[in-house]
Structure formats: structure tokens, C-alpha cells
Design brief:
Blueprint lengths: L1 H12 L2 H8 L19 H10 L3 H11 L1 H8 L2 H8 L13 H10 L6 H12 L1 H98 L3 E5 L13 E4 L13 E5 L5 H11 L3 E4 L2 H19 L1
Parallel strand pairs: 1-2, 1-3, 3-4
Helix pairs in contact: 1-3, 5-7, 7-8
């Protein structure tokens, strides 16, 4: 984490052209920062977040790769190579270079023998000691402010605690009252349950006696309705039907409920659209008989009555 902070301090000071190039196409994800917006944010805001991020190492590699050309250019210089080859002997020969870029180049070599130079560069770039002192003073003030906030919060919590104790006592009293009422209701419920069981028993006895009679009546009704016939058609198509005891229903009045009332359905096709005929036929199935006109309906009814009379005889 210390290494991260050092690099972060350098990035806060580095020349804008290197910073902007290094931040292009950074692909890490930060909480609360939309992807692709990292490079657009103020470096003072985004760099501290990156330093604390778990994806810092990915960011470091991507940033150094983006400015690889600049790093290679400074690496080619003779004085820089003197520092790389013998850092102790050439410790102070870096003063004429771009210190931030030189720092990133030496840092990218990942060799402990450059630690002293890196530290010296860091202090020159950031005035490290002064920054550290200011940071400590700010941290002390921050902690003082935080302590004051905690003290206020403790007082608030004490007040809330007293209020809650009073509320708990009030709820305990209400709970005791509700418990007494519950016990009463429990006894009443048990009594009602016994009454219900007794009534259910009487109902079962009654149903056992009445059920055979009801079933017999239902069977009679089914037998009566089994042969019921109805004629369906337009108003002008039903005027010539001779049988008065045959039910007649207009097409507009037809519904699925009638399927439970009639056994046969005679449909007069005259003046009924093909679409409606298909719909009715699909609903009725074998129970629907299509007739061309009233005359055909009358013939069918007469033939049915004749068959019924023959069965009766």
C-alpha cells in the first residue's frame, strides 16, 4: 500500500500530457464510478480511489504500458543509463530530467537498488516531509472532529435508550393485557369449536338421509332434459317453425350455459355468417345439427318425435 501511495503522489504531479496519455483506455472498475469515465475525472479525486482499489496493480500495468514510448525514450539517454548501471555513483545526476517520468521508469524496473533514488525523487517532486507533516496535522484534526461527533452521537443514543426503556415498560403493560384477552378468546374459541363439531355431526347425519333423495331427483331431471331440443337462428328464420313445444333462441341469445340445458341444437344456417357457423359448430360438436331452412328443421323434429313414440310403444 505504501508503494501505491508513492506512485499516486507522482501521478498527481506528473506533466498533463503524460497523465492524460497514461489514463486513456484504463479498464479497471471502481465502485461509484461509471466505466469509461475514469480518465475524465479530476486526478485529485480519482487517483486516491485507485490507490485504495483492489485493482490497483492492473491500473499500474495499464498506465505504464500507455506511456511506454515516453519511458523508452528517457531510458535511451546516456545519463539515465549511468544511473541504471551504477545508481550509487551517479546518485545526483538526475536533476536535469523530468523527475516524474524518471521515477516511473526506475520504478518499472522493479529493483531495490533504486529505492534511494526513488525516495529522493519523491521528496523533490512532492516535498514529501512537508506533505507528511500537513497530512498528520489534518489527520489529528479529523480525529478530533470525529471524537466530537462521537460524543454527540453518544448523547443522542443515551436519550434514545431512555425513551426505549419507557417504551418497553409501556409495551410490557399492553402485552400483559393482550395476554389476558388472548386467554379469554382461546377459551371462547374452544367452546365455539365444540359447537361447530356438533353442528357438523348433525349436518352429516342429515346429508346421509337426504342425499339419496336428492340424487334420485337429479337423475329424474337429467332424464327429462336429456331429450330437450332447441332451435337457433336469426329472427326471420324461426317464424315458420311449426312445433310450439320446441324452444327457439335467437343467435344473439346463444351462450355456453345452454349446453347444460339442451341435448340437441338445430341451427338454421339462413342469414348466419360462415364465421359464426364455424364458431357455433366448434362449441356444440356432435350435439349441433345444421339445417338449411325452417322446412328442414320441421322435418327433423317430426322424425325425432316419431322415433320417440316408437321407443315409448
Amino acid at each position: 500500500m505504501e508503494k501505491n501511495r508513492d506512485v499516486g503522489k507522482i501521478l498527481l504531479k506528473i506533466n498533463s500530457q503524460y497523465y492524460e496519455k497514461g489514463m486513456k483506455n484504463i479498464s479497471i472498475q471502481l465502485k461509484g464510478v461509471r466505466k469509461g469515465k475514469i480518465a475524465e475525472m479530476d486526478r485529485k479525486v480519482i487517483i486516491p480511489q485507485i490507490i485504495r482499489s483492489k485493482e490497483y496493480n492492473i491500473f499500474e500495468k495499464q498506465f505504464l504500458k500507455n506511456i511506454d514510448d515516453e519511458i523508452k525514450n528517457i531510458a535511451k539517454q546516456d545519463k539515465v543509463q549511468e544511473i541504471v548501471n551504477n545508481p550509487k555513483a551517479n546518485f545526483y545526476t538526475y536533476e536535469d530530467f523530468d523527475k516524474e517520468l524518471l521515477y516511473l521508469y526506475l520504478f518499472s524496473l522493479n529493483d531495490e537498488k533504486y529505492d534511494d533514488i526513488l525516495q529522493e525523487l519523491l521528496e523533490l517532486v512532492c516535498n514529501e516531509k512537508e506533505v507528511e507533516r500537513d497530512t498528520k496535522e489534518k489527520e489529528i484534526q479529523r480525529l478530533k472532529d470525529k471524537c466530537e461527533d462521537y460524543e454527540k452521537e453518544i448523547e443522542q443514543l443515551k436519550t434514545i435508550s431512555r425513551q426505549r426503556k419507557e417504551k418497553i415498560k409501556e409495551l410490557e403493560i399492553k402485552s400483559n393485557i393482550l395476554t389476558e384477552e388472548f386467554d379469554k378468546l382461546k377459551l371462547e374459541n374452544e367452546d365455539l369449536k365444540r359447537q361447530v363439531e356438533e353442528k357438523e355431526k348433525r349436518i352429516e347425519e342429515y346429508e346421509s338421509k337426504i342425499k339419496p333423495v336428492v340424487e334420485e331427483e337429479i337423475e329424474k331431471e337429467k332424464e327429462i332434459e336429456k331429450n330437450k331440443v332447441v332451435v337457433i337462428g336469426k329472427e326471420t328464420s324461426l317464424t315458420a317453425i311449426q312445433e310450439e313445444n320446441i324452444d327457439k333462441i335467437l343467435l344473439e341469445e346463444f351462450s355456453e350455459e345452454l349446453l347444460h340445458v339442451y341435448d340437441k341444437f338445430l341451427i338454421v344456417k339462413k342469414n348466419i355468417s360462415i364465421g359464426n357457423l364455424r364458431k357455433i359448430k366448434k362449441m356444440l360438436g356432435d350435439r349441433g345439427i345444421l339445417c338449411e331452412n325452417d322446412e328442414e328443421v320441421n322435418k327433423y323434429i317430426i322424425s325425432m318425435e316419431a322415433k320417440y313414440e316408437n321407443r315409448s310403444n
